[in-house]
Amino acid sequence: xxxxxxxxxxxxxxxxxxxxxxxxxxxxxxxxxxxxxxxxxxxxxxxxxxxxxxxxxxxxxxxxxxxxxxxxxxxxxxxxxxxxxxxxxxxxxxxxxxxxxxxxxxxxxxxxxxxxxxxxxxxxxxxxxxxxxxxxxxxxxxxxxxxxxxxxxxxxxxxxxxxxxxxxxxxxxxxxxxxxxxxxxxxxxxxxxxxxxxxxxxxxxxxxxxxxxxxxxxxxxxxxxxxxxxxxxxxxxxxxxxxxxxxxxxxxxxxxxxxxxxxxxxxxxxxxxxxxxxxxxxxxxxxxxxxxxxxxxxxxxxxxxxxxxxxxxxxxxxxxxxxxxxxxxxxxxxxxxxxxxxxxxxxxxx
Length: 350
Ligand SMILES: [Zn+2]
Ligand SMILES: [Zn+2]
Fold this sequence. Notes:
Layout: E1 2-6, E2 14-18, E3 29-37, H1 40-46, E4 58-59, E5 63-70, E6 82-85, E7 88-90, H2 96-99, E8 110-111, E9 123-126, E10 131-133, H3 140-143, H4 146-159, E11 168-171, H5 175-186, E12 192-196, H6 201-210, E13 214-217, H7 223-228, E14 236-241, H8 246-255, E15 256-264, H9 277-281, E16 285-288, H10 294-305, E17 315-319, H11 324-332, E18 338-342
Parallel strand pairs: 11-12, 11-14, 12-13, 14-15, 15-16, 17-18
Antiparallel strand pairs: 1-2, 1-4, 3-5, 3-9, 3-18, 5-6, 6-10, 7-8
Helix pairs in contact: 1-11, 4-5, 4-10, 5-6
């Protein structure tokens, strides 16, 4: 089958290659891809700017919606079932995190499209513990966005509790930032400010369409002015760093109020280069947030099924696998919040 493979560590070392089809296996679900979302992390790996370990050569992709083509003998699945898969391809199953349902922190967790082959191919095999049925009425393109929505849900609902009326600031207008704006809205935030740059003009419009009450472009506006103009003027109750840039963490310390919370979702390899004294002086809580678990997925699928999450504005374009570079490029240059790849069958990949 054709697959999108990162084969080296230079900028651009990604190409479509032929790899063997995975074989059906007892106890594992074999899934044929329908739609696979492009993650910002895929774009980083294309450019070799990732700050997490990867195992090469590697099939990229981890945001997959598809259909069961072999149940592996598991009674809870039938051929043709529409499903989505979580990203933890394997975990140890016996550490304290696995045994208490927090397997996203298993020390032996291996994620699709990072440490094991991922989803940009016709078929992918998964253990049943991470396969969820797509609710009736939810299309594959929306279902493929479950994963980034789960990242935002974990950060804004599971790691940080938003109180009704909170002022929430989100740094970054990519897919995670836009999903975070929606989660803030659903969780009952008051003002929701999304911060981007001039490159993000189109994405800030999407953020506004799905939940942001204010958008700020750093090239023309000062976010401090916007945030101090809200509520009691003391700053944000919650800041979400969905960029990973060190400058964003410095800015979040300016924007957060005393006793506020910063949720850090974005990865960034740079050293900080500034003092964390404001964290001490304001007694701020800095909360990292990583991945998601079974219950995150079920809740988010409900939010998609009930249309609480608005996903049409988030999808900037649908591309065949052969046009992957265009799909990745449209996210890199800020045209699309999210590109999705559809069409993995041989007829569309020759
Ligand atoms: Zn992702
Ligand atoms: Zn474990």
